[in-house]
C-alpha cells in the first residue's frame, strides 16, 4: 500500500504538466499525444523533485557535519574572534561617503541659480 502512494503524482504536478502541455500544443496534435507529453512532463517534474530532495539531504548532512566540526573546535573559534577584534576598521566606506558628498556639493554648486 505504501508503494501505491509513492507512484501517485500530486494534483499540483498534474495541473502544471497539463498547463505546460496546453501552452505548447501544436495544431493537429491528438489527445493521445497530449497525454503522452503531459505524462513526460509529470515524470520530469517528479525526477527534478527527487534530485532536489537528494541535494538538500546531502547539503543538510554537510551542514551538520560542519557544525559538529565547529563545535569540536570551540577553543579555536574563540582565538579567531580575538584576532578579528584586533583588526582596524576599513577606511573605504568613509572615503566613498566623502567622495559622494563632494560630488553632491559640486553638482549643487554647478547648477545653482546664481
The fraction of residues assigned to DSSP E strands is under 5%
End-to-end separation in angstroms reads 86 Å
**Topology as H/E string?**
HHHHH
Radius of gyration from CA coordinates: 30 Å
Description of the molecule:
With 114 residues, the chain is an all-alpha fold. The protein has helices spanning 2-7, 11-23, 31-72, 74-85, 92-110. Helix 2 (11-23) crosses helix 3. The radius of gyration is 30 Å and the shape is flat. The model has no long low-confidence stretch (mean pLDDT 82).
In short, what is this structure?
The protein has 114 residues and is an all-alpha fold. 81% of the residues lie in helices and 0% in strands.
List strands and helices in order, with pairings.
Layout: H1 2-7, H2 11-23, H3 31-72, H4 74-85, H5 92-110
Q: Characteristics of this structure?
A:
114 residues; 0% strand; mainly alpha
Amino acid at each position: 500500500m505504501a508503494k501505491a502512494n509513492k507512484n501517485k503524482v500530486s494534483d499540483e504536478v498534474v495541473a502544471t504538466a497539463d498547463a505546460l502541455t496546453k501552452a505548447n500544443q501544436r495544431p493537429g496534435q491528438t489527445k493521445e499525444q497530449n497525454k503522452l507529453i503531459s505524462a513526460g512532463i509529470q515524470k520530469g517534474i517528479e525526477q527534478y523533485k527527487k534530485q532536489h530532495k537528494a541535494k538538500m539531504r546531502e547539503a543538510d548532512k554537510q551542514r551538520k557535519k560542519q557544525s559538529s566540526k565547529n563545535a569540536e573546535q570551540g577553543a579555536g573559534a574563540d582565538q579567531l574572534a580575538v584576532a578579528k577584534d584586533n583588526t582596524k576598521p576599513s577606511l573605504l566606506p568613509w572615503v566613498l561617503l566623502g567622495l559622494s558628498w563632494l560630488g553632491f556639493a559640486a553638482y549643487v554648486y554647478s547648477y545653482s541659480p546664481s
